[in-house]
Design goal:
The longest helix is centred in the first third of the chain and has 42 residues. This protein is mainly alpha-helical. Helix 1 packs parallel to helix 6, helix 5 packs parallel to helix 16 and helix 9 runs antiparallel to helix 15. It has 17 helices and no strands. The N and C termini lie far apart (about 55 Å). The protein is about 75% helix and about 0% strand. The chain has one domain.
């Protein structure tokens, strides 16, 4: 009996050690993503791509140490989401366009990077099973604040120290636009409404001081969506779904009519005006030059390499709304519109406290897609992946509720 009791005591001790190690790895993983992502993009362009896989690996390792089954099943549930299926369909169509793109090697490399990013995000969302701890949740708002401090310090160093800007200030601003609303949703999910309001005010003041236009546009759009969602979530989600899908499908009309409108208002040619009108002029020329190619597109990863090789003009728009049409054609645009429609439409299925912030976060990212932010750079896509993981942590932090299976991945 004593021997059996001793074995039981050692077994419990082993389980406790495994649980402690699991919590430690989980905490380190979330800390790496929450703080390393917004700070890393400011410090060095490559830092994010080192921090992200480390954070995901730590989260998966923590789940393995827990020893609870069901990882594969939880991951496969994402394939029941129409938004996730639209994402996979878009990636498949982009990979298929390798057959006619002038840059097949670059297109395959970029498709592989996106595939690995999706798989890593899916693992990070499906791996944890138990409820998230408040200490893990608070890491993401703290990371947003640290990211603002790092961005301000980098901007000050550029101005005062005459240090060349390597794009870190703009990347820090984009990180704020992408990560702010998941962080706010996490605070609200735990009832920290005062801290959420304070963080929202700080972000608004930060956007005003920096004067970075894409950040201002994204936060303004997100604030509007948040306000309307709090008052009437169902109607807001429905109207945002139809409005966003229509914008994706009708976005070529903007550069198509821009030259005529410029002639009416400014009485000059669109190409003679400063940015962003010069980019609209280039987009108008490209869309009207070869209308038949709008059906299937010119192929994945064409815009970035075309500008780099000086095949496309220097002022070619880099906005995602343009590149989807130019590279993937109307088929890719339809897939994107369907995914956006389901993404907004399914927000009502999210936990009630988080749903308005999901709408705001999705709207902010959608607004960035219509600004001249380079989504071809994996930085923005990786930040979106971190936002998905942050939203999942917020959803799992609400105790006495059923965890939505990959709900954050579907909605964001």
């Amino acid at each position: 009996m004593a021997h059996r009791a001793e074995e039981t005591r050692f077994a419990r001790s082993g389980r406790d050690d495994a649980a402690d190690a699991s919590r430690f790895f989980s905490r380190v993983g979330y800390a790496a993503l929450a703080s390393g992502a917004p700070i890393g993009v400011v410090v060095d362009p490559l830092a994010l791509f080192i921090v992200f896989p480390i954070g995901v690996a730590m989260i998966v390792m923590a789940a393995v140490l827990q020893g609870k089954p069901g990882l594969v099943g939880r991951g496969l549930r994402a394939f029941t989401s129409p938004t996730f299926l639209a994402l996979i369909a878009g990636l498949c169509w982009a990979t298929l366009s390798v057959l006619w793109t002038p840059y097949p090697v670059s297109a395959l490399q970029h498709a592989l990077k996106l595939t690995l990013l999706i798989l890593a995000t899916l693992l990070a969302v499906a791996a944890p099973r138990e409820n998230a701890r408040a200490t893990d949740l608070y890491l993401f708002p703290i990371g947003v604040v640290l990211g603002m401090i790092a961005t301000a310090a980098k901007a000050l160093a550029v101005v005062v120290g005459h240090i060349p800007d390597d794009g870190g200030v703009a990347a820090g601003a984009i990180a704020l636009a992408v990560l702010l609303f998941p962080a706010l949703g996490g605070l609200t999910a735990r009832g920290r409404n005062g801290y959420a309001r304070l963080l929202l005010i700080l972000a608004l003041a930060f956007a005003y001081v920096t004067g970075y236009r894409p950040l201002t546009v994204a936060l303004f759009a997100g604030y509007l969506a948040l306000s309307f969602s709090i008052s009437d979530l169902t109607r807001t989600a429905r109207e945002l779904a139809w409005g966003a899908a229509a914008l994706v499908l009708l976005s070529p009309l903007i550069p198509a009519f821009a030259p005529t409108i410029a002639a009416w208002i400014f009485h000059v040619k669109l190409a003679t005006l400063p940015q962003p009108y010069a980019s609209l002029s280039v987009a108008a020329d490209i869309f009207t030059h070869d209308k038949l190619r709008l059906l299937m597109g010119h192929g994945f990863a064409t815009v970035a390499r075309g500008v780099r090789d000086m095949i496309l003009p220097l002022h070619t728009p880099r906005a995602l709304a343009f590149t989807v049409w130019y590279e993937l054609g109307i088929i890719g645009a339809v897939i994107a519109a369907v995914g956006v429609w389901f993404g907004f439409h399914d927000i009502v299925k999210a936990p009630p406290r988080l749903a308005p912030f999901l709408a705001a976060g999705f709207t902010a990212i959608g607004a960035l897609a219509f600004t001249n932010v380079d989504f071809d750079d994996m930085t923005v896509m990786t930040l979106i992946a971190v936002a998905v993981i942050a939203t999942d942590v917020a959803a799992r932090s609400q105790y006495r509720t059923t965890r939505p299976s990959a709900a954050s991945l579907a909605n964001l």
